[in-house]
Structures are given as C-alpha cells and as structure tokens.
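lol forgot to send this yesterday, sorry. struct tokens for the thing we talked abt
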C-alpha cells in the first residue's frame, strides 16, 4: 500500500491538479493493452498454432478462447489503475473484479467445448459420447461463476449464499427436473452402451427412424431417412422402448425375411414327367438323388396294384416341397448371403391370402441400397422359377381378371 500511495503521489505531481487526465490515461492504457493483445499477440499465437501438427490448439482457437482472453488485458489494467483512486476502491474495483470473473467463467465454458471437440477426434467418441457431461459441467461452472460474481458485487462470502441454497433445494429440483432426469438417462445410455452417435435408431412413438447425429444432455437428435429431424428428450429414451440397429451393422449381416404367397390350389404330387423335368435342374440333382433312394426304401414293401400306386398311399414328392428344396439350394449357393448365419426356407401357417413360403437369410452387404437390390434379385428369380414347378403365386383378382372371365 505504501508503494501504491507513493506512486499515486508521483502521478499527482506529474499531472498537477488536472484530475481528469489520469482517468483518460487509464482508459487509453486499457485500450492499448486490448489492441496489443487482440491484434498483435493473438495473431502471432494463431500463426504458431497453424504451424503445429497437433489439432488440439486449432480447436481451442476455433472456439474463440484467445479472443475472449484478450478482454482480460484491459480489465487487469483498469483493476490495477483504480487502486490510485480511493473512491473507487469499493464498488468500482469490485465491479471490475466481478467482470474479470465473468470473463473467466465464459472462458472455462469455451474450454469445455474445446475439450469436447478434441475428444470427438477419436473413434471412442462414437461409442462413449460425453457431450451431455460437458453440458452439465458447463452448467455447473456457470452456476458457480454467477454465485462468485454476485458475492463479489455484494462483498459477501460465497459460502453464505451456497449455504442458503439448501433452503431452495426443492425449487431447484423442480426447475432442473428435466436436467437431472436427462443426466441420469445419459449416464445409463453411455454406461450400458445403449446408443452411440451414428446408430440407426427406430422409435415409432416419436416418429424417429434414422441415424443418431447428436447426443446432448437434454435431447438426442435423429435424422430420419427422409431427411427430416426428430429431437427426443434424453430421459424419454429410458422411459420408452426403442430399436437400435447397431447389432445388424456390427454383425455384418442384414436380415432378409420375406414370404412368397403360394396359391394352395397349385400344390400337388409330382408325377414321373415332373420328376424327369426337375432332374434337368442342376441345383436339384443332389436333392432328387437323395429323395429317390429314400422313397425307394420307404415304398419297397408296397405292391404294384393301382391302389398302392396312388401317391396318397405311398411316400411321394410334391412340387412345393421340391421348390422349397430348390430355394434352399439357390440361397446356399449364392455368394451374397452369409453362410455362418441362418439360411432357411420355411412354410408358415396357411392364410386366406395363400400359403406363405418364407425366406429367412442374411445379406453380406448391409448397405441399404445394395441390400434392397440383392433382395429384389433373389425374389425376381424365385418368382420367375415358380411356373417351372407348376406353382402359382396367390393374388387377389383384379379388374383384368374379371374382364377375362
């Protein structure tokens, strides 16, 4: 204090009784400090940052941390300068100090988002997003910073205000209800690895069917496949059921589950002519050879009478069973399908719309466009092959059918 008083006396002697000159010099010094830092020091620092191979400093500069830090220079100059004015040592100096803490609070908030940008550079950011935690930390920093600024202006201890917060805890819980629920939901989502950024999320109750593009504290943003956007409250994710298609992507196989509706009136036993025709299909050769031996063994004890020759009195092939064997052989020989996953052709329960013959397989290509092409090629082929087995696809009659009648 003695040194400051001596400096103040020297300044007063230098400027004489012109008390207005010192404030002008102080403002000019603060302005000069800002200009030097903002337009001289920061550009030099940014040039050095651009030359470094690391991206961390680039992301920090991109968030405007350096530009905001430049505001501290004039604040420090003014804070030191007003010490020579006793009338400003009270509220005036506290105001400048509060402004400095406000700048520091905003600076920490930007640094937190710079940390998020740096974290997003690594692949683990898709598996363990931390944006919700960063937002919560920013909220806490802003809350504590606001308390400190108010305490500085009121010249009170922050512990008194923090102690008084206990009386309004119920109000805070009500005000920050969604924030608290969203934080808990975010912890559950991340710790249990339920949703990641980039996952295909399907949640019909919110109209969501697309890719997760952002996971924040309060909302999860989904871009639907029709390029519309849906925001879902984070805590609603844990309250409702949802479908995550990540398992399909991780497995490398996308399921094809579609049925051919067979006209049940076209199903019949195979006669010799049909079996001879089927023998020309290369994919059916192993199946027919196996079946012929099985049928010969099963029917060995039967005579040659007309009654015993009837298919219903002996084991016999059907055109539908043979077609099912053809479908199984076709998908097993197709390189587009995963052999280490389920490859199955099965009959489902008959319906008024026909007999469903379901193809249950997994495509190697999980890309949506390619997947649809593979699926279409498969059923194009099977529909075209159906007439060779004497089978028909069921469909309701159309106007053209009635016109033919």
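and heres what i got for the seq, position by position
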């Amino acid at each position: 204090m003695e040194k400051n008083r001596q400096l103040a006396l020297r300044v007063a002697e230098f400027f004489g009784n012109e008390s207005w000159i010192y404030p002008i010099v102080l403002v000019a010094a603060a302005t000069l400090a800002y200009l030097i830092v903002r337009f001289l020091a920061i550009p030099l620092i940014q040039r050095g940052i651009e030359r470094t191979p690391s991206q961390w400093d680039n992301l920090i500069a991109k968030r405007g941390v350096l530009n905001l830090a430049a505001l501290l220079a004039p604040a420090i100059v003014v804070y030191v300068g007003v010490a020579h004015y006793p009338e400003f040592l009270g509220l005036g100096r506290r105001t400048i100090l509060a402004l400095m803490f406000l700048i520091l609070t905003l600076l920490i908030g930007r640094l937190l988002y710079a940390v998020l940008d740096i974290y997003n550079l690594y692949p683990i950011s898709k598996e363990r997003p931390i944006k919700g935690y960063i937002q919560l930390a920013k909220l806490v920093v802003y809350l504590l910073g606001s308390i400190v600024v108010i305490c500085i202006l009121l010249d009170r201890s922050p512990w008194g205000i923090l102690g008084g917060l206990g009386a309004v805890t119920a109000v805070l819980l009500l005000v920050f209800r969604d924030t608290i629920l969203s934080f808990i939901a975010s912890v559950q989502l991340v710790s249990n690895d339920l949703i990641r950024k980039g996952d295909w999320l399907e949640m019909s109750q919110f109209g969501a069917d697309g890719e997760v593009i952002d996971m924040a504290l309060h909302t999860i943003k989904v871009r639907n496949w029709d390029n519309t956007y849906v925001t879902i409250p984070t805590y609603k994710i844990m309250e409702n059921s949802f479908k995550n298609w990540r398992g399909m992507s991780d497995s490398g196989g996308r399921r094809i589950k579609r049925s051919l509706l067979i006209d049940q009136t076209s199903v019949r036993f195979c006669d010799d002519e049909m079996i001879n025709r089927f023998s020309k299909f290369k994919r059916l050769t192993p199946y027919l050879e196996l079946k012929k031996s099985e049928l010969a063994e099963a029917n060995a004890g039967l005579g040659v009478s007309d009654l015993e020759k009837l298919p219903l009195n002996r084991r016999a092939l059907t055109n539908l069973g043979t077609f099912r064997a053809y479908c199984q052989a076709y998908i097993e020989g197709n390189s587009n399908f995963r052999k280490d996953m389920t490859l199955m052709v099965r009959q489902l329960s008959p319906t008024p719309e026909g007999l469903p013959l379901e193809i249950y397989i997994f495509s190697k290509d999980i890309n949506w466009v390619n997947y649809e092409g593979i699926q279409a090629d498969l059923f194009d082929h099977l529909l075209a092959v159906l007439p060779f087995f004497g089978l028909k696809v069921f469909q309701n009659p159309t106007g053209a059918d009635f016109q033919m009648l």
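The first strand starts at residue 200 and ends at 203. anyway ping me if u want another try
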